Prior knowledge:
Low-confidence stretches: none
Radius of gyration: 27 Å
Order of helices and strands: EEEHEHEHHHHHHHHEEHHH
Mean pLDDT: 87
Shape: globular
Number of helices: 13
Number of strands: 7
Helix content: 55-70%
Structural class: alpha/beta
Amino acid sequence: xxxxxxxxxxxxxxxxxxxxxxxxxxxxxxxxxxxxxxxxxxxxxxxxxxxxxxxxxxxxxxxxxxxxxxxxxxxxxxxxxxxxxxxxxxxxxxxxxxxxxxxxxxxxxxxxxxxxxxxxxxxxxxxxxxxxxxxxxxxxxxxxxxxxxxxxxxxxxxxxxxxxxxxxxxxxxxxxxxxxxxxxxxxxxxxxxxxxxxxxxxxxxxxxxxxxxxxxxxxxxxxxxxxxxxxxxxxxxxxxxxxxxxxxxxxxxxxxxxxxxxxxxxxxxxxxxxxxxxxxxxxxxxxxxxxxxxxxxxxxxxxxxxxxxxxxxxxxxxxxxxxxxxxxxxxxxxxxxxxxxxxxxxxxxxx
Length: 351
C-alpha cells in the first residue's frame, strides 16, 4: 500500500464556509474545495487530500478560531497568514480560492511564519469576560452622561437640587427618589427617567464588579505575580495576558513582546540627530495598558518618580521618558508572563 503524499494546506476562513487549497511540497496545486464551518466539515477537510504537514490560515483569531483548535488537537501545525498586499492582489485578483492558494504558497515559501494564539486555555476565558466588562463600562459611561445631560435640561425645581452633587451621591439620591405619578408634568417625567437611569447605572456597576472579581481569580491563577507589580491592575493585567495569548512561547523574546505592544523604540535619526520616537503600530490596547501602568507609577511609585526627575534633568522630553518607561514595563511584564506559564518563579521587580 502506497504512503499518502505530503501536502500543505491553505485556508480562507468565513462565517459558514471555509475555502481550502492543497499544494504538494514543491508547490503544485492539487485541489481547491469549500468545506462547511462545522465539526463534520473540519474532519472532511483534514482527510481529503494526503497527509497534511502544515496549514496556513487567514482569520485564526476570528472565523478560524475553532478550526485552529481542531487542527492543533490533531497535531497539525497552524501558521497565521496575513492577507496578500495590494500589489499582489492587483496582479493575481481576489477570490476565496485564490486567497486559500496564496495562504498555502506563503507557508511553503516561508513568507508566513507567525504562530497564532492558542484559544483553549485560561487566557481565552479572560478574553471572554473582558468583552462583557468592556461593554458594561461603555454602557455605564453612556448612562451617567445621559443622567447629567437630563439634569442640565431639567426644570429648575429638579435641576437645582441635583446639579451640585457628586456622581456617587447623585446616583444614590436618584435611585431612592419617588418621582410621582403625574407623567404629563415634565418635572415628574424627568424624575422618573433619572430614577430609571440611576438604577441602570447601579446594575452596570454591579456587573463590572462581578467581572473584576472573576477576572482577578483567573489572573491570579494564570499569572500569580502579575497583579503584584506596581501599577498593574485587573484591567491592564487582563489586556496584557490577552495580547500574549495562552502560548506566550510564540514570542521569541521580550523584545518581540515590546514590539507587539508598540513599546519598542523606532529610530528617528537624521543627520547629526540621534533619537528614537514612540511606536504608533502594534497592539494599541496593549500599548494603552502599558501607558496606564506608567501613569500610575509616575504618580505613586517612588522609583519611577526618581527616574522621571533624573531623566528630565538630563534634558529628555516627556514623550521620550514615557517611551523608555513603557519599554521597561514591557520587559518586566514579559518575564512575569513567561515565568508564570513555564512554572518558574517570576523575576524581582527591583531595578
